[in-house]
Amino acid sequence: MLVRGKYALTRAEPGGRSRLLTDAAVVVRDGTIVDAGPYTELRDRHTVDSEIGTGRQFLMPGLINAHHHGFGVTMIQLGVLDCCLEVHVHRLKARRLLEPYTMALYTIMQHVRTGTTTVMLKHGFTAAAKARYEMDETLRAFRDAGMRIAYSMNHMNQCYLVNGSDAEFLASLPGELAAETAEIIKSFVMPYEEYEGICTELAERFPPRPDSLVRVLVSPQNYHWCDEETLGRLKQLATRLGLGIHTNLAETVYQRLYAERRFGDTPTARLYKLGFLGPEVSLAHGTWLTREDMDLVATSGAGVCHNASSNLRLASGIAPVLEMLRHNIPVGICTDSQGINDDEDMYTEMRLVSKLQRPPGIESEPITAEQVLHMATASGAHLTTFGDLIGALEPGRRADMVLLDWDRITHPFVDDEVDPLEVLLYRARGSDVDTTIIDGRVVYHEGRFLTVDAGAVTREVCRQLQGPLTEDRRRRRRLVAQLEPHLKRFYGGWRGETTPYYPYHSAS
Ligand SMILES: [Zn+2]
Question: For the chain, how many helices (H) and strands (E)?
Fold first, then answer.
């Protein structure tokens, strides 16, 4: 197969090291890219069965969404409005539920139609008793649809209710509310041994072969959501099984304050001292990393999965990405199931990242288009542990790529002296994607899904979700509403002095 573009971005690399070819193509054989270069040369050099691309499109590596929870049907669709994360983690327990297979297929559709070919899925089960079923159904959907996935199941064993002692918090609640809350929390508890068993089975089921679309990771929910002994065991487990580690970290100021109040240290410093950080570790969010934290992350070789939309939506803040890049920390881009337009459009997400990282001041140096595109491609490949297999269109890599309608992006006119990478970042949307190819297989082409029955999946989403709320969901919504004032009381007065990286505004 030959895939042709008016432009072909074969590699996005900061510092002017990107490779953008004009009237170029790549040749794919058995899912692997075997050649890339000028279209006419490749056409002469290779005999191909099929040719894709009109020659008027923009060809680039498939995007990598490096942190997600598999909610392609989003929280607001399921009845949950955005709020501060410390409350949100409870609100989402009262969302409407979909069958995991249907949810996963819809999530895949939302990604591939907008040019994302790999998703890092940090899976939270709806109850420990259903964990295996939900995991198997999710992985079955990704296999059936042929989408690339870095899968991990969440693990936590403390701070189910607040960033502190659950027992003390429960004791502070009115009797009936405490009892009902404790009962729901109990359903989320999974013994460590069971979690270890699941990771071990997954590692056996999905060895990291070059032609496998699955990578498995070990996934503590966050520093404060596991005790330190468990974090140590999870690190050992990942090392023994040869798996990467994906965890949330310092997403909100309250997460950082939990460790500071308890140990006089940031959560990142605690993880560093535990020997937990390393090149196989990716940290989702990192919104509240200090400069010292970044030194530790950089020294360890760990990376950060940046969720700009989600951080805004859940009132977590704006992550200091420029500072992370200055520290040479690998950073990826992700929607966290909470894109700014309530979809999975990574082109919009990239644009948001680039607009947020423009500190005021004539001397400030905003993030570059190359940096952002690198984050969403090669850096994402590294963070999802697919490494050099994807993230660029070069011989030897697996063929994950996207064709975008360049005429639409530049309609009716764009000065042709403008760098096409800037045009892409300023103007492209997921809806400009014409074709999505994963592992050499066309999965989406001109509005049609070739591996998913989109009509049937959408009908199934509607069928499962319509109708009145179940009694269980109604009860949970009432409980969460009752819990909220107590959560506000718990965190009241926590916020200490902080020093912003960038002065976005000033009250004095
Ligand atoms: Zn998340």
Answer: 20, 17
Backbone angles phi, psi at 464, to 5 degrees: -70, -30
d(CA 284, ligand 1 centre) in Å: 7
Packing angle of the helix pair 267-274, 253-263 (nearest 10 deg):
60
Extract the tokens encoding 168: 């003390």
Q: Tell me the three-class secondary structure of 7-73, residue by residue.
A: EEEEECCCCCCCEEEEEEEEEEECCEEEEEEEHHHHHHHCCCCCEECCCCEEEEECEEEEEECCCCC
DSSP 94-117: GS----HHHHHHHHHHHHHTTTEE
Rounded to the nearest integer, the mean pLDDT of the chain is 97
Q: Residue 361 pLDDT > 90, yes or no? A: yes
For CA atoms 135, 94, 304, 307, the dihedral sign is positive
Ligand 1 centroid distance, CA of 349 (Å): 15
Interior/surface letters 121-159, b for 16+ CB within 10 angstroms, e for the rest: bbbbbeeeeebeebbebbbebbeebbbbbbbbbbbbbeb
**Could you tell me which of 160, 173, 156, 68 has the C-alpha nearest to residue 116?**
68
Q: What's the CA gap between 384 and 148, in Å, rounded?
A: 10
Give residue 491's pLDDT: 97
If you measure from the C-alpha of residue 285 to the centroid of ligand 1, how many angstroms do you get, rounded to a whole number? 8
Alpha carbon of 123 to ligand 1 centroid (Å) = 9
- For the entire predicted model, the pTM comes to 0.98
Tokens matching residue 137: 């159904």
pLDDT for residue 94:
97
What is the whole-number distance in angstroms between the Cα of residue 373 and the centre of ligand 1? 21
Q: Which two tokens mark 103?
A: 């949810």
CA of 69 to the centre of ligand 1 (A): 6
Q: Distance from the CA of 121 to the center of ligand 1, in angstroms?
A: 9
Q: What is the pLDDT of residues 204-223, one digit of tens each?
A: 999 999 999 999 999 999 99
> What distance in angstroms lies between residue 413's CA and the mean position of ligand 1's atoms?
39
Give, to the nearest 10 degrees, the angle between helix 267-274 and helix 291-300: 30
E strand spans, 365-500: 401-405, 433-438, 441-445, 448-449
Confidence of residue 276 (pLDDT cuts 50, 70, 90): very high
- The DSSP bridge partners found for residue 4 are 25
**Tokens coding 89:** 């983690």
Residues 6 or more apart whose CB falls under 8 angstroms from that of 105 comprise 141, 144, 145, 452, 457
Question: How many Å is the Cα radius of gyration of the chain?
Answer: 23
CA of 263 to the centre of ligand 1 (A): 25
Specify the pLDDT at position 496: 73
Distance 336 CA to ligand 1 centre (A): 5
How much distance in Å is there from the Cα of 72 to the middle of ligand 1? 13
DSSP class of residue 79 equals: T
